[in-house]
Amino acid sequence: MIVDDYRPPRPWDRTPVRERGYFDLLGPGVVAVVAGRPAAPPGAGGWHPPTGGAWIHVGEEGIVTAFTGKVEVGQGTHAALIRAVALDLGVPARSVRLVMGDTDLCPWDLGTFGSRSMPDALPPLRAAARALREEIDRRPGRSDRPSDLGARVRGLRTILELPPAAEGEPAPPPPPGPAATVADDPTVVTGARRYGSDLRPDGVLEGRVLRAPTYGARLDSVDTAPARALPGVVVVEEDGFVGVAADDRRDAAAALEAIRARWTAVPAPDEAGIEEYLRTHPLDGDHWDAAAEADGDLPAAWDRSAVRLTATYRTDYIAHVPLEPRAAVARWDGNRLSVWLGTQTPFRARDDVARGLGIPVDDVRIRVPPTGAGFGGKHGGAVALEAARLARAAGRPVRVRYSREEEFRFGYLRPLSLVDVRAGADAAGALTAWEFENVNGGAAALGSPYRSRAHRLENRLARSPLPQGSYRSLAAVANNFAREGAIDELAVLLGRDPVAFRAANLDDLRLRRVLETAAARAGWDRPLGGDGRGRGIAIGREKDGRIATVAEVTVAPDRRVRVDRIVTVFEAGRVVDPDRLARQVEGATVMGLGGALFESIAFDPGAIRNPHLARYRVPRFSDLPEIVVELLDLPDQAPAGGGETPIIAVAPAIANALYAAGGVRLRRLPLLPTGRLPRPPAGPSGPG
Length: 688
Hints:
Elements: H1 22-26, E1 29-34, E2 54-59, E3 64-68, H2 77-89, E4 96-100, H3 117-137, H4 149-152, E5 157-162, H5 187-190, E6 205-209, E7 218-223, H6 225-228, E8 234-238, E9 241-246, H7 249-258, E10 260-264, H8 274-280, E11 291-295, H9 298-303, E12 307-315, E13 327-333, E14 336-341, H10 346-357, E15 364-367, H11 382-394, E16 398-401, H12 404-410, E17 417-425, E18 431-439, E19 454-460, H13 476-494, H14 498-504, H15 509-522, E20 533-542, E21 545-555, E22 561-571, H16 578-597, E23 603-604, E24 607-608, E25 626-632, H17 650-662, E26 668-669
Parallel strand pairs: 1-5, 3-4, 6-16, 12-26, 14-15, 18-19, 22-25
Antiparallel strand pairs: 1-2, 2-3, 6-9, 7-10, 8-9, 11-19, 12-17, 13-14, 13-16, 17-18, 20-21, 21-22, 23-24
């Protein structure tokens, strides 16, 4: 496809359009370049991140090569974008190649996260494709076959420069035919696909890094002489970094074991003290995720409340557990560095590596090979910098692959969230007062889709003792779990049907349609029948997508729980690739099931106790219920991302179903760390 050793003088995102070597790399033809756009500030029009645009080349052989800064980490974006370009150009999908995440050749991009791949990458790619189609159609007579793009661009070296794509997405292309189908890659399931951790350039060494025994520990002294004495071992000790490289992983591990290091631990809380610690250790300074909002007369609203709820909901630290742990291969060619890195943010990684090594950004190239998932856990380029330091000292390529334990301990986690809720409703079933405060989790989905007479929202940042960062949907899982649990509790206090109570308090007509569709699809009005069975519902709105999930559970006499069925209705604007979007929803459902039922990080002060899959429970095939997915298509709306929103309603739907089936209200994730539902407390009980 793209010549692997092609090296532009400067990365194309840092080179004027007319000086880029499109035709040196791809041959004669026509190129359309859509400029990037700056970020839009928060406001009535909504925020969008900066984008680097897109470029597409049509060559003499009829091959279309498109470039985007987004990456494919299993979410299906690669196929969906190829399909869109093929439709707009009127060519078979097999004629389209898509280059993603190569920092030398692709447009700059903030990163593949936040369900932004389709909103950010699709408009400029479609704008470029439509401009190429119009330009080529103006050139009749170059071919007797008007559909033969290659013949009509023969001998040309034309560059079309276009303004940034409009924020609103262009009109949809004609209905797809069989030619627009993008076949699934069978190597994904045969084991033949080569991921970043499989790459072994000639002469590559295996690298290992000395790591602290506990978080925040200070390295007091280190003696690397025993490792340096081992044959064939390269040792690097610089700027607080200590690592080794050897011909194979076993020799590298032995060299690392030979290093003598002394550390001083820092004080840290254990699990029993984590809630108090987070509440009393605020994170100082401004932060992009800080948020606070208030409106209305809360004291007066509380006075009008016929029922009141005060509760705290908690979600534990959990790990991303991608199928492929972090991996990078670094190779120096003179003063220029190339790194093959599984990352969601290749351009940020380029900057991180250049800064860490003290070299110009133009001398660093990041390429993203097929990557075994990320879920928000593969931001930045720490492992790339480790491999690059070792490769520079060794004078040979070096591969650094995290073990599963390193992935748990030296990646980062989903934040532990504490969500305090005070909510009230009047006797007619209208929400009157809504106070919602998240400690440590984040501001995603902090705002409510329900109207109330008065409200106060706050996100309080805390200084986490464990490393934490982005996770699929950010804080939307925690905030939605708390909100949908509280809404259900209010419905119970009022004696209202949970679906009707939600619908009566929603102003978002798109979300209301999703709610009502899910209730109908799940047969909400039909009794389940049998003892110990229950049904629960939850809804949510995030990344401009709307979701409703219904869970059905059975609680056995011994209090063991089985999730029988999950029905999800998802509306994300225009559906670009329905098959892959449905798979995204299914995957998010399975991932949400783990966090809802049993995933949790156990820790002592400064150290994780379960940093491997033998002790960290993830969903198994035997855990999976029947999963039903229905997509609502809004052709007149721009497509929203599909990777994150489908996870946010899984846990609260299950929690609400467990209350319906077993009479116990659970306010902490995971809901069932032991696999059994506690018995209801003796005497009167209910929300409090």
